[in-house]
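User: My advisor asked me to double-check a structure prediction for RagB/SusD family nutrient uptake outer membrane protein before group meeting. I don't want to rely on an old file, so could you generate it fresh from this sequence?
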Amino acid sequence: MKKILKYLGLPLLVAGLLSSCSDLDVPIETQLTPDVFPQNETQYIQTAGPVYVAFRGDFSFSWWWSQSLTTDEAIMPARGGNWFDNRNYIAMHYHDWNADNGIIGSLWDWSSKVIGTSNQAISILNQAMPEGASKSTMIAELKTMRAISYFMLMDNFGGVPLDTVYGDFTARPKSDRKVVFEFIEKELKKALPNLNPASGVTTYGRPNQQTANALLAKLYLNAQVYTGTSRYNECIAVCDEVIKSGLYTIEPRASYLQMFYPNNGPQMKEFIFAVPYDPSAVTVGYNGQMYHARYDVPRSERAKFGLPFTPSAPRSTIPEFYANFNDPNDIRNKQWLTGLQFMNDGVTPVRVTTTKKGYDQFYTGADGSASYTYQVDLTPDIVLRQSVTLFDLGNDEIAWNMGYRNIKFYPDATSTSRNQNNDVPFLRYSDILLMKAEAILRGGNETLGHTAVSLVNMVRSNRTTSAAWTSVTLEDLYKERSREFAQEAWHRNDMIRFGKYEGSWGFKTNADTYRRIFPIPTNARVLNPALTQNDGYTN
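Assistant: Sure, here is a fresh prediction for RagB/SusD family nutrient uptake outer membrane protein from the sequence you gave:
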C-alpha cells in the first residue's frame, strides 16, 4: 500500500514549476498556469499531492519532538556530547526553551508550509476544476488538511495569523486563540458533507468524513483549554458519528503491536487518519522521513533487528512514565525494551565486547584497556554522570544503556536506509472511545448505551487479559491514555488538559503555566513583523 504515498508525491516537480512560472524567457505556450495545468483528473490529483507531501515533511520530527520531549514520555540527554545540538532537546525537558529553539522554529515553519501549500492547491483547483462532486471532495480534503495544520498551530502556539488566500503576503497579526478555534470548527463542519464517507484503500492517507469528526472531537475535548468554555456534549456527539459509521474497530490484543509494524497500512481498522511513509519516496525540499528506530534502538541491538545501519539510540523514557505500564497481562508492555537483552529467540544474550574503561569511563583500575564482555542491560534511571550542566550521561556503555526504549514503531529491517516504512497514525478509533469516556467523566451525557467505564473496557479488553474495570476515574483514564498512545505525539496535549504539564518529572521542575504554549519563533517574527510575542516570553 506504499504506492499511495508515491502517487501523492508525484507533483513535487509540478508544484515547483507552478510557483516559478514568471520567467519571461520561457515561451508563453510552455508556462504552467492554471489555464494549461491541471486539465484532467490525474493532474488535479497531482496538484493536491504537495499538501500531503508537506504534511509528512516534519510530522515525525518537530511534531514528535515538541509533543513528547516536553513531557515525561521521552527524554533525550547528551551522551558524551553526542546529541547536545545547541541545547534544543535539553530545553524541551527542562521547559526553559526560548524563541530561538530549533525544534519550536521547525514546528512553526512546517505547519505554516502545509497551510501555504494548501492555499496554493485550493486556489489552483478552484480555478481549474469543473464544478461537481469530484471538485467538492478534493477541495474539502485540502481544507481539512489546512484545518489540521491550524489545529496544530493553535494547540502549540495559541493565537496565530489566519491566512487562506494564496499569493497574499500581507503581514497579519495573530488572531485570538478562540477565533482560530472557531475557524477550525467552521472549516471542518463545512468540509464534512463533501468528504468521502468511505475508509480503507480508497481514502487512505487523505481525510475522510470521520477524520473531520475525529478532529472535531479533539477540538471539543480541549475546548476548555483553548477557549475557556467546555464543549463535552459536542465532543460526544462527533465521537458518536465515528462510532455509528461502523467503519472502524479496535484492533485485537493479538495484533495490537502489528498496527505499528513496517507493513501496516489501510488494512488497520483503527486508523482513521494516518501518515504514510515509504523510504523509496524522494521528497525534495521536505524531510518526509520517519526515524524512530534510529533514535530508540540501542546501538548494541543492530543485529537483533537486522538493521542496515547502527542506530544512535539517544532517546528513552523515564521511570515516572514507565510506571504506567504496571499490568503484567497487558500487551502494550511489549512495545518497550527493558532490562537484560536477548536476541529474538529469547535465549541468546545480546553481548558487547569492549574494554573496562569503555564499559565505565570512570573506571580507575590499571587494567582499563583490558577486554570486557557483558550482556546488555537497559536500566530505568537517567543519571547525569558526566555533566549536569550539559545534561550528559557520559560516553561509555553504562551511559548508552540508560533508559528504557520504546519500539512501538518496530524497526524496519527491509529499508536500506535509516528511514522506515511504518505508517504513523494521527487519529485512531481507540482515541474516539477514550475521548468519549473522558467527556462523560467531565460532565457530558451518556449516549448509545455507553458509560465511561464501558468505553474504557472496550479498549482494555483488547489490550489485557486482566479483569475488566468496574469503575473509572479521570486519573485512571489519564494513565490508560498514557499506555494506549505512548509515542504517538498526544501526550503533551493530554498532560495540559489533565493539569499535569506543570508537574515535576526527571530533572524538570519548572511550573510556569505560560509554557503550555510555545513562544512565537524569532524567524517567524522577522518574516512577519505584525506578530507579537506570546505572554511570558521576553524575546
